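Methods — Computational structure assignment.
A single polypeptide chain was analysed. Its primary sequence is given first, followed by the predicted tertiary structure written as structure tokens.
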Amino acid sequence: MSETGPVEHYKVVLNHEEQYSIWSASRPNPAGWTDEGTSGTRQECLDRIEQIWVDMRPLSIRTRSGR
């Protein structure tokens, strides 16, 4: 627990278009999203997304453009 209250834990989630987001670890994933495998503080999850999500285009656009 921090001085401002309990510290919430998050996880990185991924959808079928390979788009990333953070989600509360205590809640079920939203429909269509799966666990990427990273969990921790909000900042740790955001740092992970910044590290791995280098091409923001959805998968369907990336594959259509031949990449």
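Note: Strands lie at 10-15, 20-24, 33-40.
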